[in-house]
Amino acid sequence: MSGGGGVDVTAEGRRFIEEIDGFCGFNRRWLVRLEEPTDERYGWLPRSRPLEKYIEYGVINLDKPPGPTSHEVVAWIKRMFGVQRAGHGGTLEPQPHGGGAGRP
């Protein structure tokens, strides 16, 4: 399918996946069983997606440094991106370091 500006959406999507695979050190062949046309109203090519859409629908993977609480980091994210709703799934606390009883 061609997207806006004559972009072949299917080929561009496959190139993006192969680039991510290469970055991650994967060397696998993708099998496409059926190609379906994509309606441009329902999505974006990853590099074409506006930042506002990433913020509205996205997830921020964060490696929280020791010190600030998870609540503080969420407050910073909300302030930095100008959003009212944000949260965290699980703990943002760093992994324990050093050996203790029962720890590797």
Give an overview of the whole structure.
With 104 residues, this protein is an all-alpha fold. The chain folds into 2 domains: 1-46, no CATH class; 50-94, no CATH class. It has helices at residues 9-24, 51-57, 70-81. The termini are far apart. Residues 99-104 have low confidence and may be disordered.
Rg result? 20 Å
**Fraction of helical residues:** 25-40%
Beta-strand level of the residues, as a percent range?
A: under 5%
Element string (H = helix, E = strand):
HHH
Total beta strands: 0
Kindly state the mean pLDDT as a whole number?
A: 74
Tertiary shape: elongated
Low-confidence stretches: 99-104
* Largest β-sheet summary: none
Report the structural category.
mainly alpha
End-to-end distance: 52 Å
Number of helices: 3
The tally of domains stands at 2
Short account of what is shown:
The protein is an all-alpha fold and 104 residues long. It has three helices and no strands.
